């Protein structure tokens, strides 16, 4: 199991750094934009497209981080009332669904990235595909983290 845990530990730390840095940069960028707009009446036009990319990074990488931590939005009152075996089955189904979701995001966003690679984001001039490559990376992380949880369930079952 350590063959997947160690790389996932590194990946988790990298995602934390990128998401945290993105959040800090987003805060500074918004403050800068507000000061420039309301104090100097000179709002920079590049803030909005950069902020949108940062929000995508924060949301998608944050979702992957919550998968690794085992956190999710949901009602677990039913699952808590199940037997230990029932809870393990529910957790397995949850992670299989997350892997299916990650695969759908991966292939859908990859296709969108391929079709928008020649388009440019107005003002900042980078390829439009960047918006779709961020969820591609996050979906790979979600699948890896879910697979790690499935392996942990399987190893626990074997003991």
TrEMBL record:
<keyword id="KW-1003">Cell membrane</keyword>
<dbReference type="Pfam" id="PF04290">
    <property type="entry name" value="DctQ"/>
</dbReference>
<feature type="transmembrane region" description="Helical">
    <location>
        <begin position="88"/>
        <end position="113"/>
    </location>
</feature>
<comment type="similarity">
    <text>Belongs to the TRAP transporter small permease family.</text>
</comment>
<keyword id="KW-0812">Transmembrane</keyword>
<dbReference type="InterPro" id="IPR007387">
    <property type="entry name" value="TRAP_DctQ"/>
</dbReference>
<comment type="function">
    <text>Part of the tripartite ATP-independent periplasmic (TRAP) transport system.</text>
</comment>
<feature type="domain" description="Tripartite ATP-independent periplasmic transporters DctQ component">
    <location>
        <begin position="26"/>
        <end position="154"/>
    </location>
</feature>
<comment type="subunit">
    <text>The complex comprises the extracytoplasmic solute receptor protein and the two transmembrane proteins.</text>
</comment>
<protein>
    <recommendedName>
        <fullName>TRAP transporter small permease protein</fullName>
    </recommendedName>
</protein>
<feature type="transmembrane region" description="Helical">
    <location>
        <begin position="46"/>
        <end position="67"/>
    </location>
</feature>
<feature type="transmembrane region" description="Helical">
    <location>
        <begin position="133"/>
        <end position="155"/>
    </location>
</feature>
<keyword id="KW-0472">Membrane</keyword>
<keyword id="KW-1133">Transmembrane helix</keyword>
<keyword id="KW-0997">Cell inner membrane</keyword>
<feature type="transmembrane region" description="Helical">
    <location>
        <begin position="12"/>
        <end position="34"/>
    </location>
</feature>
<keyword id="KW-0813">Transport</keyword>
<dbReference type="InterPro" id="IPR055348">
    <property type="entry name" value="DctQ"/>
</dbReference>
């Amino acid at each position: 199991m350590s063959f997947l845990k160690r790389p996932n530990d590194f990946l988790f730390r990298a995602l934390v750094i990128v998401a945290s840095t993105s959040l800090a940069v987003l805060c500074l960028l918004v403050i800068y934009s507000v000061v420039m707009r309301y104090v100097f009446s000179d709002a920079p036009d590049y803030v909005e497209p950069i902020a949108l990319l940062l929000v995508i990074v924060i949301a998608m990488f944050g979702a992957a981080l919550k998968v690794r931590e085992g956190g999710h939005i949901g009602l677990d009152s039913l699952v808590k009332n199940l037997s230990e075996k029932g809870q393990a089955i529910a957790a397995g189904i949850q992670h299989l669904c997350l892997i299916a979701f990650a695969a759908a995001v991966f292939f859908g966003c990859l296709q969108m990235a391929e079709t928008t690679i020649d388009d440019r984001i107005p003002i900042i001039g980078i390829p439009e595909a960047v918006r779709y490559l961020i969820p591609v990376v996050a979906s790979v992380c979600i699948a890896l983290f879910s697979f790690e949880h499935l392996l942990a369930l399987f190893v626990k079952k074997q003991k």
